[in-house]
Amino acid sequence: MTIQNKKIVLLPGDGIGPEIMQAAARVLKECATEFGHEFNFAEFLFGGCAIDATGDPLPTETLEACRAADAILLGAVGGPKWDAVPLGKRPESGLLALRKALGLYINLRPIDLRSPLYGLSPLRADRVRDVHIDFVRELAGDIYFGKHQVETDPSGERATDEAVYTTAEVERVAKYAFARAEARKRRLASVDKANVLTTSQLWRRTVTRLAADHPHVKLEHLYVDNAAMQLVLAPAQFDVILTSNMFGDILTDLGAALAGSIGLIPSMSIGPGPALYEPIHGSAPTLAGKDVANPVGMILSAAMMLRESFGLKREAEGIESAVDRLFANGVRTPDTVEPGTTKVGCIEFGERLCAEMAGASLRPQRANHGA
Asked: Which one of the listed residues 56, 70, 253, 291 is annotated catalytic?
């Protein structure tokens, strides 16, 4: 086993961000202890708290630290406190600026329906099994990065948001999605709205052309409305789903609902430099400070970091399997509690998870000694 020394930048952010980040960092420290790695954490201001302290959601010091990191963990940003801030200066604009500065153009969001939590899914029992979907979402283009304009109009105002894609932007995310599909079940569903949108027509042409370079991958095109319907009717039909920035933003939240809670879903954003890992949920300011947040999305994002950025597959699986064992043993956060289970807070869930990981690491040794 190769011992690793990694520099990890922590951006707790706003709302419940600091709470879930504390739990994830605690789990990573336990993992480092068990496997002999050294993870060096450095925490920086980002989002609304950075606006309060510096006037900027992405301070220069934070950006420089992120550029020098081996990987970045982000909690969540935003909240009603900053709703009156101009659009380009809000906490969320700091996230867009960070993605742009780091060249993050691909977002991977795995939607896994974990067997101990099947009862939480709104799906019928016959539809929840074998749902393991990798959403590959383009992250640097589309309507989020186009021109935003408000003009006067006889009725009051006229607002415009411009959606833009280039061939190169579609190619680079599509190539990643095809490679992801080749490493899994060799099925790729590309989602667009090519019947009405010019950007989607470019998207479909480009993805279809690239399919010739991946003859072992079965490619299917779906309109976004049909894709949403199929995710509810038969989600197990999907393996890897490739889609644009806005459609991916929407569809992955639908996928999270199928899993039973948006608090369960991790994500990874990648580009040419350090990758950014974050849960897909928001800052949930009404829950902040109450110790009721679900840290699992954050913790599984940390596990993704170990696997995808550091190549530590065994360590990532150790965290993920410990999470599943806790769920199976009835240990639940408030958003995942069911009759007969034990409700615990964010901090306690993290502590129980660390204890579960430590116990698991000792089991083979005990077995070898006949215990």
From this structure: 253
Q: What is the pLDDT along the chain (371 residues), one digit of tens a residue?
A: 577 899 999 999 999 999 999 999 999 999 999 999 999 999 999 999 999 999 999 999 999 999 999 999 999 999 999 988 887 788 999 998 999 999 999 999 999 999 999 999 999 999 999 999 999 999 999 998 889 999 999 999 999 999 999 999 999 999 999 999 999 999 999 999 999 999 999 999 999 999 999 999 999 999 999 999 999 999 999 999 999 999 999 999 999 999 999 999 999 999 999 999 999 999 999 999 999 999 999 999 999 999 999 999 999 999 999 999 999 999 999 999 999 999 999 999 999 999 999 887 644 443 333 33
- Looking at the DSSP bridge assignments, the partners of residue 149 are 160
Q: Quick check: is 144 catalytic? A: yes
- Catalytic residue check, 225: yes
**Which residue's entry shows tokens 């690239």?**
210
Catalytic: 165? no
CB of 346 closer than 8 Å to CB of 296: no
Tokens 């709703």 found at: 83
Calpha distance 310→265 (Å, rounded): 20
Residue 213: phi and psi, rounded to 5, are -85, -5
What angle, 0 to 180 degrees and rounded to 10, lies between the N-to-C axes of helices 167-182 and 198-211? 50
Pairing state between β 240-243 and 71-76: unpaired
Residue whose pair of structure tokens reads 């799906």 in the numeric block: 123
Q: Is 249 known to be catalytic?
A: yes
Report how far residue 90's alpha carbon sits from residue 93's, in angstroms, rounded to the nearest whole number: 5
Active site residue 213: no
Out of 134, 192, 249, 335, pick the active-site residue.
249
> What residue type is 191 in one-letter code?
V
Which one of 70, 100, 144, 343 is the catalytic residue? Answer: 144
